[in-house]
């Protein structure tokens, strides 16, 4: 215990102030050195007040006005209303915590197709990701594969009919040239002879007739298909099946150059029919539509950058490539 009596003394650490010494240490707040100190020790300093606790959300606070309780059966503010619509509730009163965020998130997801029966905007589709819609070149549906096959069979029949008329005499002459060869081969087959020695061969005239027949067949096919496709995009078969060949980049007439490029991929192999290679190439070209996606193009469509589309049932002249809009001045109410 210190020998210094309790009392007010100058603070050795700060001579301009005085503090109270209680015999063991300095207590209380300091006073200026020239001030008259109280007769005893300084009054005790009040304890600091504890910090106020933050109000909990949803807990009523004393003295704050409270919202009226909802009536039984009444919908909660901001809750979904019957019929699938979302009705916003009234704003919260002063001192009341904000309402919970009822309702769907703001903004629909990217690529969600709105429409009747769809979930509310911003909600995921119940069946997951939807496949992309089929392409519609120039607003028209792609031609069905069955309709394209039927149109091609009609065109083949028409080309065969033209060959009967134009190429029939050459075919008859060729048959006369090769008939001895087939007759002798048939006789030996019926007699059970397997030797080919002494079997007659076709004459040079038969070989020439074969080339002429193939050239005429290709020319007839060219004359039947290329001009009509260049002008309207339709052969007779496509017109009957309501199909049309269209350009990919713009809706307009194909033109002779593009129509020729489209035809030569499937028509020129006709010249190779004599060695059976041309027919195989044409089968591969036509069957490519079964595997091509998404436009179902054959190889001749890809070479010419074309696509085959389906015309609607109520097709008007405006559906033809390069057609002018219909003049409706004679409709009721139009100008005379």
TrEMBL record:
Pro residues biased stretches: 35-60, 69-80, 88-132
Key word Membrane present: yes
DUF2510 domain span: 6-38
Record region (Disordered): 1-132, 313-336
Compartments, record wording: Cell membrane
Stretches assigned to the RDD domain: 143-304
GO cellular component, one term: plasma membrane
Top-level taxon of the source organism: Bacteria
Alphabetical keyword list: Cell membrane, Membrane, Transmembrane, Transmembrane helix
The keyword NADP is assigned to this record: no
Membrane topology, as annotated: Multi-pass membrane protein
Biased amino acid composition, Basic and acidic residues: 321-330
One Pfam family hit: RDD
PANTHER family for this protein: MEMBRANE PROTEIN, PROLINE-RICH ANTIGEN HOMOLOG-RELATED
Protein name: RDD family protein
Organism this protein belongs to: Micromonospora pattaloongensis
Lineage of the organism: Bacteria, Bacillati, Actinomycetota, Actinomycetes, Micromonosporales
């Amino acid at each position: 215990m210190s020998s210094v009596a309790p009392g007010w003394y100058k603070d050795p650490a700060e001579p301009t102030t005085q503090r109270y010494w209680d015999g063991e240490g300095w207590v209380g707040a300091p006073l200026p050195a020239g001030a008259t100190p109280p007769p005893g020790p300084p009054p005790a300093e009040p304890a600091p007040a504890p910090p106020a606790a933050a109000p909990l959300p949803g807990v009523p606070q004393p003295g704050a006005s409270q919202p009226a309780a909802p009536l039984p059966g009444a919908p909660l503010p901001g809750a979904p209303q019957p019929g699938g619509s979302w009705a916003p509730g009234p704003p919260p009163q002063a001192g009341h915590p904000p309402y919970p965020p009822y309702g769907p998130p703001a903004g629909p997801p990217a690529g969600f197709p709105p429409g009747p029966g769809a979930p509310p905007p911003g909600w995921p589709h119940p069946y997951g990701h939807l496949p992309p819609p089929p392409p519609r070149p120039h607003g028209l549906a792609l031609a069905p594969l069955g309709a394209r096959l039927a149109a091609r069979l009609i065109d083949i029949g028409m080309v065969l009919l033209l060959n009967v008329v134009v190429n029939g005499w050459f075919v008859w002459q060729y048959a006369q040239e090769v008939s001895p060869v087939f007759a002798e081969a048939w006789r030996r087959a019926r007699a059970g002879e397997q030797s080919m020695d002494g079997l007659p061969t076709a004459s040079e005239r038969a070989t020439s007739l074969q080339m002429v027949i193939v050239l005429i067949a290709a020319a007839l096919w060219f004359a039947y298909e290329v001009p009509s496709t260049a002008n309207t995009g339709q052969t007779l078969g496509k017109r009957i099946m309501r199909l049309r060949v269209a350009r990919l980049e713009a809706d307009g007439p194909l033109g002779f150059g593009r129509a020729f490029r489209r035809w030569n991929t499937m028509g020129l192999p006709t010249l190779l029919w004599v060695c059976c290679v041309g027919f195989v190439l044409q089968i591969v070209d036509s069957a490519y539509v079964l595997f091509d996606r998404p436009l179902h193009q054959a190889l001749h469509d890809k070479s010419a950058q074309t696509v085959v589309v389906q015309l609607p049932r109520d097709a008007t002249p405006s559906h033809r490539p390069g057609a002018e809009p219909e003049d409706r001045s004679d409709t009721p109410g139009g100008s005379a």
